[in-house]
Amino acid sequence: QSVLTQPPSVSAAPGQKVTISCSGSSSNIGNNYVSWYQQLPGTAPKLLIYDNNKRPSGIPDRFSGSKSGTSATLGITGLQTGDEADYYCETWDSSLSVVVFGGGTKLTVL
Amino acid sequence: EVQLLESGGGLVQPGGSLRLSCAASGFTFSSSAMSWVRQAPGKGLEWVAAFSGSDGSTHYADSVKGRFTISRDNSKNTLYLQMNSLRAEDTAVYYCAKSGKRITNFDSWGQGTLVTVSS
Question: Any residues with CB less than 8 A from the CB of A33 and at least 6 apart, and which?
Answer without folding.
Answer: A50, A51, A52, A91, A92, B102, B104, B105
